[in-house]
Amino acid sequence: MIWKQVIDPFNNITLSVVVAAVPILFIFWALIIRKMKGYQASLIATGLAMVIAILVYGMPIKLALLSAAHGAVYGLFPICWLVTMAVFLFNVTVKSGQFEIIKHFMASITSDRRLQALLIAFSFGSFLEGTAGFGAPVAITAAMLVGLGFNPLYASGICLIANTAPVAFGSIGIPITVASQVSGIPELPISQMVGRTLPILSIMLPFYLVSIIAGFKKAQEIWPAVLMSGISFAFLQYFSSNFLGPALPDVIAGLGSIICLMVFLRFWKPTTIWRFANEPAATINTDISYTNGQLIRAWSPFIVLTIMVIAWGIQPIKDVLNSTGMTQFEFPGLHNAIQGEDGSLLPKIFKFNYLSAAGTAILIAALVVIPLVGLTYGEGVQVFGATLNQLKFPILTIAAVLGFAYILNDSGITLTLAEVLANTGYLFPFFAPVLGWLGVFITGSDTSANALFSKLQYATAQSIGVDPVVTVAANISGGVVGKMISPQSIAVAAAAGNLVGKESELFRFTVKHSFYMLSFICLIVLAQAYAVKWIIPVYEMLGSKKAAAIPDLSKGYTYLIVLGVLLAGIAISVLTTTKKKVQTPDLVN
Question: Which residues contact residue 332 at a Cβ distance below 8 angstroms, ignoring those fewer than 6 apart?
Answer without folding.
Answer: 66
